[in-house]
Specification:
Blueprint (H helix, E strand, L loop, with lengths): L7 H13 L19 H6 L2 E4 L5 H11 L3 H10 L8 E8 L4 E8 L3 H7 L3 H14 L1 H11 L6 H15 L4 H21 L4
Antiparallel strand pairs: 1-2, 2-3
Helix pairs in contact: 3-4, 5-7, 6-7, 6-9, 8-9
Amino acid sequence: FHRTSKASAVRDQVIVDMREGRKWRVQIALISQSLDDFSKNMIDFATSIFIMDAGPEQSIRRTKEVFGLSPTAVSALRNYVRGPSAKGANFLAQFATKDQMTTHLLTVTIGPVELWAFSTTAEDVKIRNALYQYIGPKKARQLLARIFPSGSAAKYVAMKMESRKDETGLLGGDEQRGVIDSVVKSIMDEYKKDPDF
């Protein structure tokens, strides 16, 4: 939503839609990395708020102030809301009901295929994209999920990089490309022998 900061017409329309959307069965979802991207009206009209990452201490204090979080909710935010991982994503959810505001610490989990679809680490993206070209997106994600069920090959690549560094004494972009290329080649060699390996 931060991209609308200079588009007042868009932001004004969002406010109108937030005010009148229910009668037209329109639901508005606004997403941003910073609380400052939302106006006071937008926050006041919000009926469901999801805080996916606590951020630094000043962000926690601001979030507490803006959403009126209890000490328990602040503690949960500080200690458990750290963004997604292979184990899932803890987040703080606040719901405005007819009777009251309720806040819950929730966890959402996704499987390894989805983790591979959403991974943004450089190593994972390079491996995934190379396999997409060879066998297509769906099969590539399924295959990667079987080989690396954590949803990432980054630790494996780092281990291989460390091993190469010990052998050659070098570490850099060419070595990383070489490791990634060898991972892709190994996967493709096994896939060609047996697509269900």
